[in-house]
Amino acid sequence: MYQLKTTQIIPTDMKECWDFFSSPKNLKTITPDYMGFEVLVDIPEKMYAGLMIEYEVKPILGFPIKWITEITHVDEMKFFVDEQRKGPYKIWHHEHHFKQVQNGIEMTDIVSYEIPLGILGRLAHPLLVKNKLNQIFDYRFKKVEEIFGTPKS
């Protein structure tokens, strides 16, 4: 199993931060355009445990992939978890943690994932998957800074 962990300080208050990230409608905003991210079902303004979200992404060469995630855990203004139910990964478990700190909100993402296809998946990981995930989370980091600004030192 692989893991990606990112941390970002967002210069805002907990309510504004939580309201933004707990709205499934904002996911497209923080996803690179080249991913071709499209939600395929009606989604509510706020997520809740048990919410299933179906969408399509085009991560490699524009080929569409259907992806279904379930919001499995929500602890209001602290964390939430989404897990893949159908999609390109063998396992996808994404934790989103929020903590008040001196300069705003510390947001930590922890993605634990496993790739299918045995040895082929392990060979593809450093060449395709790891780099693509890093690009997506780098984009997200920059987009969140555009939306909320950068923390003051």
Word description of this protein:
With 153 residues, the chain is of the alpha+beta class. It has a single domain (2-148), classed as 2-Layer Sandwich (Alpha-D-Glucose-1,6-Bisphosphate, Chain A, domain 4). It is 25% helix and 38% strand. The chain is built from two helices and seven strands; from the N terminus they run βαββββββα. The chain has helices spanning 14-21, 118-148; strands at residues 2-10, 38-39, 52-57, 65-75, 79-86, 91-101, 104-114. A seven-stranded antiparallel β-sheet has the order 1-7-6-5-4-3-2. Strand 6 (91-101) and strand 7 (104-114) form a beta hairpin. The longest helix is centred in the last third of the chain and has 31 residues, at 118-148. It is globular, with a radius of gyration of 15 Å. The model has no long low-confidence stretch (mean pLDDT 93).
Brief description of this entry?
With 153 residues, the chain is of the alpha+beta class.
For this entry, give a set of tags.
alpha+beta, 153 residues, 7 strands, Alpha-D-Glucose-1,6-Bisphosphate, Chain A, domain 4, 7-stranded antiparallel sheet
